[in-house]
Design brief:
heterodimer, A: about 775 residues, alpha+beta, eight-stranded mixed sheet, five-stranded mixed sheet, 20 helices, 29 strands, B: about 170 residues, Ubiquitin-like (UB roll), DNA polymerase, domain 1, six-stranded mixed sheet, 6 strands, elongated
Chain lengths: ~775, ~170
């Protein structure tokens, strides 16, 4: 849908009074993007004398470092210095949770294949990379634990297990008229942000400026400060934009920026670190893969009576964000369904692989997969349409408390699903598919309509804060800065729309500036879908402070009650008098009124008791549903998505063009995760799929030819910015409908049998499931 | 027209470098290069044309796609010295006289990008696809654009943009 079409769509009309907010405004960098003049870190003109870095990686996945021979590396052409852990003056740790388990350079032992052991600083990137291959790293190698199963067998955990308990699941299971048990494997996912990890560190007199492609400038600042024994105030991190991130630059950007800063400090010269793509895929964390084992009880109508699920995830060698990610898997183990009795356990396994990390959805998608499979199990076992089982299990009156004790007060799923069922023509197509399948021996169609309910807020409560800085200049232009980072999601334009709306000025008057730790300190990562919710509020707070001063000034000067003063169309409306915005600014300036302010926001009404596993961790829920139809070839396992209908809830959209883009993109990424994207490690812990030649990312021809997206028109019940809702992560889980549709197609081969389809549903996985249901 | 199946530039035996002449976005350049220099590195590192992106450096993502005598190529797998005398157009050369190319405008109209990193390659690929004239249907456009990955998943809008520019051409 084009920007123009979106603007005219009836379901996205903003409140009449709004001029900037709710308008389908193009991305602020649109012209630069199409002209190739939008600069990413690697495009910034390098200062004279910039040195280039490459890392030498461990040749084994697990073992003690016996010796490192770097003589040949030092002697290689163009090499300026070679650094090891011993050269780090301060703390050798890039852990986001100060766990001390993420060495910037490995010191005594290695914990995954190709872990960074030494750093080459050279005149050119090519020289650095060639030299890095000459290091001899001697490791007393041990057998690595590679898979979740390896780690479960060895009882190897990176964090203690954690349980949510509601009701009495054992008793409820025993009393249930029907029971089912199953196991599901859910694959990981490589971020493949098209711009790889990169940082440029420029040393100053006694400080450091770092240009990094990171979602979390403040954390990176703290890690570098600790590493170099510098006060945080001496380290500045700046981010103009990222070429995609998807969670992969929340913590994983820090190590490379730290190495650039280390080399810059020790050589006194600017240093750039840009990971080669294969190194990036081998050396940075990914979405956690999970194994889900479950037992559930249900009644004759398909209503769940008890759910007992164990989710085991591959966290990799260190903690990273695995605590919060596994927590979020638990928070979404219900998806949109009421579980009267449930035990939800996560086991956070430690393996000798990269430390898995944030990825759009942050454990939520994996958590939902088990309960969605359970719903299909129930439908297959009772001979019901899976959509009917889904609808019967939704939260509702008297069935509205989650397993973690939060009451669901904003549930729109019943209405949303009914609407999509109608607009997608689900029932008619279900019948047509049944007729097709009965007449088609090898090609089989499947359809599924699955919902998403996604909790919005960082579950680590203190992260739910944001800051902004707004300056107004005398010509009426506005300098906007906030703690959020732009990774393509359209955050910057949304916040600018809010500020333009507040001052009643043209969006073009709002100058968007790069995220900088020097302007807004102590920020949270741009993550958890919270960027627009929180930074827009903080920016509006700053703008309102300045506006409040202007109103107080104008009230006195023009002897007009403050309530009769407003700002719109680049003017102050003071009583019946229209004063140009720049004029009122000039008058206020001459009267010595400050035209600059910080702004702050903290999300209200959040509380969480980790000991009890109960509380209100989310401000609200974002909802959506997708109906996908697929066709599979039962002889080859080939699969095509034929049509997708999506109805998604973004509250009252701040920018429908941006939001629809997020929904489309999230769906495609979720579909990729569950269908074609497969990570393969060998037994030695080496990643075998470390380039797009072996790791298949959805391309243009994988997108459904018939792809229909609509926004569900309803204001957020909570007091969010203009009653909008977060949109970054929730649409990813709409991709589950494709996975369920594939299972539905396979189920047509053996009605009543469980379909043991694991994710990703590659042709191999589909063929395996077909084989399982059609044998005996 | 000169054969380009071997380095046609003048090799300098002492330094191991090779001279090559290229016209990039209408400007002629005479360069002396390490013969291993890719066209992408030449553009980015020697000519400061950083619009073309290095996504994978393996010819698999399409972010480095440029037009070489009107054909689309992945510049990371193209040796610069093999292209002596060639005409190269990068994303920076698509706009003419301050006016966006119709496909550039269509990308803006259809919101056909998010992070923007694949956009220069998508645009060059799309311009060549339209000129090739093979793709008539939406399916054919999707298939012939499948060498350009958009990790943000803006494919629907990229398709719409190409269709708009096709109608205009």
């Amino acid at each position: 849908m084009s920007v123009a079409e979106v603007a005219q769509a009836p379901n996205v009309v903003a409140e009449a009074a709004l001029r900037s907010v709710g308008v389908a405004t193009q991305h602020d960098s649109a012209v630069r993007h199409v002209c190739g003049s939008a600069a990413y870190v690697d495009d910034v003109r390098e200062p004279e004398g910039t040195l280039h870095l490459a890392v030498g990686g461990a040749p084994a996945a697990r073992g003690r470092l016996k010796a490192i021979d770097l003589a040949a590396v030092r002697a290689a052409p163009g090499v300026v210095r070679v650094l090891t852990a011993a050269d780090i003056p301060g703390r050798n740790d890039s852990s986001p949770v100060n766990a001390g388990d993420d060495p910037i350079l490995a010191a005594d032992s290695v914990a995954f294949h190709h872990q960074a052991v030494f750093l080459v600083v050279a005149q050119t990137r090519d020289a650095a990379r060639r030299a890095a291959k000459l290091g001899k790293i001697d490791i007393e190698a041990e057998r690595p634990l590679v898979s979740v199963d390896d780690a479960l067998a060895a009882q190897s955990y990176v964090l203690p297990e954690y349980t949510f308990l509601t009701g009495e699941p054992e008793a409820a299971l025993a009393a249930s008229p029907h029971r089912v048990s199953g196991s599901l494997r859910i694959g990981g996912q490589e971020h493949f942000y098209l711009e790889g990890q990169v940082a440029l560190a420029v040393p100053g007199e006694d400080d450091m400026l770092i240009y990094s492609s990171t979602q979390h400038p403040s954390e990176l600042q703290a890690i570098v400060a600790h590493m170099l024994h510098l006060p945080a105030a001496a380290v500045t991190v700046e981010v103009r934009r990222m070429g995609g991130a998807f969670g992969g630059k929340e913590t994983q950007a820090a190590q490379w920026a730290a190495l650039a800063a280390l080399a810059a400090r020790l050589t006194g010269r600017p240093c750039k670190m840009r990971l080669d793509r294969d190194d990036d895929m081998i050396m940075t964390g990914k979405r956690h893969d999970f194994r889900a084992d479950y037992t559930a009880g249900f009644d004759g109508d398909g209503r769940i009576t008890a759910f007992d699920v164990m989710l085991a995830s591959r966290c990799g060698y260190s903690a990273d964000l695995s605590a919060s990610i596994n927590d979020r898997a638990m928070f979404h183990a219900d998806n949109g369904y009421y579980l009267p009795a449930a035990r939800i356990v996560t086991k956070r396994t430690k393996t000798h692989t990269v430390s898995n990390t944030a990825f759009r959805g942050f454990g939520g998608p994996q958590g939902m997969m088990a309960v969605e499979r359970l719903i299909d199990d129930i439908a297959w076992s009772l001979g019901l349409d899976p959509l009917d089982v889904r609808k019967r299990n939704l939260y509702g009156d008297g069935r509205d408390v989650t397993p973690y004790g939060m009451r669901v007060t904003d549930n729109i799923l019943p209405e949303l699903i009914d609407t999509l069922e109608r607009t997608s023509d689900y029932r008619t197509r279900r019948r047509a598919i049944a007729a097709f399948n009965s007449a088609s021996p090898y090609l089989k169609r499947g359809i599924a309509l699955t919902p998403v309910k996604f909790g919005i807020s960082f579950t680590t409560t203190h992260l739910n804060q944001a800051g902004a800085l707004v300056h107004v200049y005398l010509d009426g232009s506005v300098h906007l800065n906030h703690g959020g980072t732009e990774m393509g999601q359209g955050l910057f334009v949304k916040v600018a729309q809010v500020v333009a709306e507040e001052f009643g000025i043209d969006l073009a008057q709002v100058k968007i500036t790069p995220t900088s730790t020097a302007k807004v300190p102590n920020t949270s990562p741009t993550a958890a879908s919270s960027g627009a919710d929180m930074n827009s509020m903080a920016a509006r707070d700053a703008a309102q402070t300045i506006k409040g001063r202007l109103i107080a000034f104008a009230a006195e000067k023009y002897a007009t009650p403050p309530e009769l003063i407003s700002f719109r169309d680049s003017h102050a409306l003071i009583g019946n008098r229209l004063v140009p915005f720049a004029q009122i600014l000039r008058e206020a300036y001459l009267a010595r009124v400050s035209l600059s302010s910080t702004g702050f926001y903290r999300t209200p009404d959040l509380h969480w008791d980790p000991g009890k596993g109960k509380g209100r961790p989310f401000f609200y829920f974002a909802y959506g549903a997708a109906c996908s139809e697929v066709i599979i070839d039962t002889l080859t396992g080939e699969m095509k998505v034929a049509r997708v209908d999506i109805l998604h809830d973004v509250g009252r959209s701040l920018n429908p063009a941006i939001d629809i883009g997020q929904i489309e993109g999230g769906f495609v990424q979720g579909m990729g995760w569950l269908t074609c994207e497969e990570l393969v490690y060998d037994q030695a812990g080496r990643l075998l799929t470390h380039a797009p030649s072996t790791y298949k990312i959805p391309c243009a021809s994988d997108v459904p030819p018939d792809f229909r997206i609509a926004l569900f028109d309803a204001a957020n019940r909570e007091d969010t910015i203009y009653r909008s809702k977060a949109v970054g992560e929730p649409p990813l889980m709409l991709g589950i409908s494709v996975f369920a549709a594939i299972a539905d197609a396979i189920h047509s081969l053996a009605p009543g049998k469980r379909v043991p389809l694991d994710a990703p549903a590659t042709p191999e996985s589909i063929l395996h499931a077909i084989h399982q249901v059609t044998q005996d | 027209m000169q054969q380009r199946n071997q380095p046609a530039g003048r090799a300098d035996g002492a330094s191991g470098t090779v001279s090559v002449n290229l016209t990039v976005n209408g400007t002629r350049h005479s360069l002396t290069l390490d013969p291993r220099t890719s066209l992408l590195d030449l553009l980015r590192e020697h000519l400061d044309l950083t619009g073309s992106k290095k996504g994978c450096d393996h010819g698999q993502c399409g972010a480095c796609t440029v037009l070489l005598d009107g054909r689309r190529v992945v510049s990371c797998l193209t040796l610069a010295v093999m292209q002596d005398g060639a005409n190269v157009t990068t994303v920076e050369g698509l706009a003419k006289d301050g006016h966006l190319h119709p496909l550039q405008q269509a990308f803006i109209d259809h919101d056909a990008f998010q992070c923007g990193y694949c956009t220069p390659g998508q645009l060059c690929s799309g311009v060549a696809l339209i000129a090739e004239g093979h793709a008539k249907t939406a399916d054919e456009i999707r298939e012939l654009m499948s060498g350009n990955i958009c990790r943000c998943g803006a494919y629907t809008n990229i398709l719409a943009a190409i269709q708009q520019a096709m109608r205009q051409s």
